[in-house]
Amino acid sequence: MYTIIHKGTIFHYFGEDDEMANQMVEVILNTNLKDLMELPELYEQKEWAKIKVRCHKGKSTMSYIGALQVRKMLEEIESDPETIYPQHRDQLMQDLQTVDEELRFFLNEQFG
């Protein structure tokens, strides 16, 4: 079921403490991922600084869940949102949707 996130990486960063892993994944879903899903609106509003901040914050989040290909895209977008974001927009949004689905599956599988 996992094509982007890595379950082992999540437990590596959050330890074998199931409650901690559960809470951290919930935080990622409710804050970090939600913020990244708003990038299209921020781009339309030409909010380059906000895009940079969200990409910067999102990089570490993606590392914690093993989504390194998404982390790489965020790093590239952070460097020049106005130019680079349109090149990655469709793939990024698709990958973020997959990350959301996989994290929800992870929560159900581990703590269901």
Features:
112 residues, 6 helices, mainly alpha
Q: What's the topology here?
A:
Elements: H1 7-14, H2 18-37, H3 39-44, H4 48-64, H5 68-79, H6 81-111
Helix pairs in contact: 2-4, 2-6, 4-5, 5-6
Notes on the protein architecture:
- With 112 residues, this protein is mostly helical.
- It has one domain (7-111).
- It has helices spanning 7-14, 18-37, 39-44, 48-64, 68-79, 81-111.
- α2 runs antiparallel to α4 (48-64) and α5 (68-79) packs antiparallel against α6 (81-111).
> Average pLDDT across residues?
96
- Note the run of SSEs as H and E: HHHHHH
Number of domains: 1
How many β-strand runs? 0
Low-confidence stretches: none
Structural class: mainly alpha
The radius of gyration is: 14 Å
Oligomer: single chain
Shape: elongated
Alpha-carbon distance between the two ends: 16 Å
What percentage of residues falls in helices of 4 or more residues? over 70%
**Largest sheet features:** none
Quick structural summary:
The chain has helices at 7-14, 18-37, 39-44, 48-64, 68-79, 81-111.
